[in-house]
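[User] Once you have settled down, look closely at the record that follows, and write a paragraph about the fold.
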Amino acid sequence: MLTSGATVARTGLDGIALKPAEVDVADAVHLDAELLVVDYEGREHLPGASVLRELADETTVRMTTPVRADGFDPLGDDSLARELPDDVGRVLVAGHGAYLTECEAGRAIAPRLGAARKVANDAWVGTEGVERVALAAGGTQFDLLSRSTDRDLKSLRAAGYDGEIAVYAPTVLASDDDAILDAVGDFVGRRASVARALPDDCATDSAATGRAREVLLKASRDFALVGDAATVRDRVAELHELGADYVVGYPARGLDEFSG
C-alpha cells in the first residue's frame, strides 16, 4: 500500500482508476490505494513502462488493454502488450469506439478476448457491451456501475456464480449538487436510459435546470458514487455485501481530493 494520504482508505474503495489524458499517472504514487487501474485513452496517452513499473513497485497495477487495438490484438499486432512490465496486470476490454480506428472497430471481439485470456490468465475482463462474451471468457468480471448493478450482483450470486466481480464507478467526494453535475453530469447524461429522459439540447452540468437537473442528479447517484467520504464508504460497503469483490473509483474531479 502507498503511504501518503488516507482519503482512499476512508472511502472504502478497493482501487482507483486513472485516466492518463486527464492526470499525470505518475502522481498516483502519492495515493494510499492498494490497486490502481490505468484506463486506455488512445496510444498517445499510454504511460511509459518506467512509470508503470514505478507504480507497480508500490502497489497493484492493472493496465486496460483493448483487444481490438493494434498493439494489444492477441490475433495480430500485440507489440504494446508484450512491452508491459511483468508485474503490471491487465484489464481486457473490447475498446471504446472513440479510441479505435474503423479497421480496429470492425474486428471480432469474442475470439480476441478468449485468446488474450490464454496469454494473461489472471486478467480482469471488462463487460461493457459484451456481458455474455466476458462471462464466457472468464476472469474477474469488471462492470460499470449502473442502475442494474445491485440486481445483477444479487442475481449472479444467487445463481451460484462464485467468480470475482469488480465494479467501476466515477466518484465525486462532494454533496453539493452543482459540484456533482459539473463532475459527472455529462457522463451520466450519455447513458442511454438517461439520455432518453432528458429534454433536447439541455445543459448537463451545473447549468442544468428543471426536469433536466432532476434527471441528472438522480442518475448521478445511480451511475456514480457521490457524497462525502462516509457516504461513499457506505455505498461501497453495500456493493460488497451484494457480492462485489472490488469497487474501483474514478476520481471525476481529479486526484487532489484523494490525496489526503
In short: The beta strands are 15-18, 35-38, 60-66, 88-93, 124-126, 141-144, 165-172, 225-226, 246-251.
